[in-house]
């Protein structure tokens, strides 16, 4: 094998404290580079023959721990090289690529530290929703491990089972656990792509993420009509909340956060064009006469970069996300009050408009794949989660069509 790794001391650069950095000297096809171990000592305490720190550097126990640390770092580097060789990948990599594989693995043995790095990256990319989900999982894992570190090789089938027991024993929901585990799986898959962990170590081969059916959130079509005809004072909070629900319903069940971020420039001719925050899917939806009548109230006097709805007024994205969350909480409370006044017995929330749109579309015999496209789903089984059970009178109608003649 034409690749090797050994401990050495970098004599070329002296630090301000008169010490020299201990490195891993990497050789690959007659080229060399170095990887810092993060440790440095005065030059005369380095045993170049035996590639270790001399015993007289300090207390014996401290020197032994330091040398043990250095040997572990070297062992990990050599193990990565051996794995790459066994996979027949080593000869196709440059020395910098080999160094990157070793350096990344050394830097992120910790699942939690890697997760923190991903959160920072998501925030920089303005993907604050995903960052919030990742941070929520990491906080939960730190609670589970009692703030101890969590290495990648700690996460296996047994760990997932024990974490499940921990979560459910505190009277938490199975669907809440599924949300955490899907996020954990997402981080783990990213780590595999970053070559921090091998595919063979993937802990979800035998473990299945379980969920329980969620209660259906769709309301009857007649309830939507009650909301449509509900009389409100122009500009009042019931006026706005009624409109938010109807705008969402008429825009394929648009989420509250996407409505909040809609700007006048998203309206092009007779269409609304926007990108969904959650999935980054692009939408191009016709503005119907009914929808246009509602929007005109909000568009009056607005510039292209102005938000259409009176939800956001902050300049920074992080503050805008906080405003969305606070406004959504007020909106949900307001919807419940409106439901009581309208005689709607079903439970109204911001999600109900999306589920209701999907179910009502199904009852109008719109094909499932079309509804799926409207909702922006990549899989039909995701769409089915949104669909309410078919009423018995609809089943009876189809049943009669199947009569033998």
From TrEMBL:
Kindly indicate whether the keyword DNA-binding belongs to this entry: yes
List UniProt keywords, sorted A-Z. Answer: DNA integration, DNA recombination, DNA-binding
Q: Name one GO biological process term.
A: DNA integration
Q: Name one GO molecular function term.
A: DNA binding
Q: Core-binding (CB) domain location, by residue?
A: 102-192
Domain Tyr recombinase: start-end pairs: 214-400
Q: Which domain of life is it from?
A: Bacteria
Describe the family membership recorded for this protein in Swiss-Prot or TrEMBL: Belongs to the 'phage' integrase family.
Report what the protein is called. Transposase
Q: What is the lineage of its organism?
A: Bacteria, Pseudomonadati, Bacteroidota, Flavobacteriia, Flavobacteriales
């Amino acid at each position: 094998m034409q690749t090797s790794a050994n401990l050495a001391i970098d004599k070329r650069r002296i630090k301000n404290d008169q010490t020299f950095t201990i490195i891993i000297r990497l050789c690959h096809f007659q080229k060399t580079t170095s990887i810092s171990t993060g440790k440095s000592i005065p030059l005369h305490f380095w045993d170049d023959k035996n590639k270790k720190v001399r015993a007289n550097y300090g207390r014996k126990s401290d020197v032994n721990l330091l040398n043990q640390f250095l040997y572990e770092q070297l062992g990990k580097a050599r193990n990565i090289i051996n794995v790459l060789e066994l996979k027949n990948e080593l000869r196709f990599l440059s020395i910098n690529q080999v160094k990157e594989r070793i350096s990344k693995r050394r830097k992120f043995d910790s699942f939690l530290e890697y997760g923190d790095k991903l959160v920072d990256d998501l925030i920089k990319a303005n993907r604050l929703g995903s960052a919030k989900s990742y941070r929520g999982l990491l906080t939960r894992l730190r609670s589970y491990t009692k703030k101890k570190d969590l290495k990648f090789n700690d996460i296996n089938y047994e760990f997932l089972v024990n974490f499940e027991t921990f979560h459910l024993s505190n009277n938490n929901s199975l669907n809440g656990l599924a949300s955490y585990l899907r996020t954990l799986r997402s981080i783990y898959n990213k780590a595999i792509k970053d070559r921090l962990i091998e595919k063979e170590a993937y802990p979800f081969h035998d473990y299945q993420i379980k969920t329980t059916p969620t209660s259906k959130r769709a309301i009857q079509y007649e309830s939507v009509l009650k909301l449509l005809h509900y009389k409100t004072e122009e500009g009042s909070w019931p006026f706005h909340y009624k409109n938010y629900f109807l705008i969402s319903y008429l825009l394929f069940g648009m989420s509250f956060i996407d409505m909040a971020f809609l700007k006048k420039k998203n309206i092009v001719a007779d269409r609304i064009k926007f990108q969904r925050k959650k999935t980054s899917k692009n939408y191009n939806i016709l503005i119907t006469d009914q929808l246009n009548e509602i929007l005109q109230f909000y568009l009056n006097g607005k510039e292209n970069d102005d938000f259409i709805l009176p939800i956001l007024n902050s300049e920074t994205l992080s503050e805008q996300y906080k405003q969305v969350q606070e406004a959504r909480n007020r909106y949900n409370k307001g919807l419940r009050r409106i439901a009581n006044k309208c005689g709607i017995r079903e439970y109204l929330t911001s999600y109900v408009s999306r589920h209701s749109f999907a179910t009502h579309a199904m009852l109008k015999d719109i094909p499932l794949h079309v509804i799926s496209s409207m909702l922006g789903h990549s899989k039909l089984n995701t769409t089915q989660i949104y669909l309410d059970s078919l009423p018995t009178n609809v089943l009876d109608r189809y049943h009669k069509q199947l009569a033998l003649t």
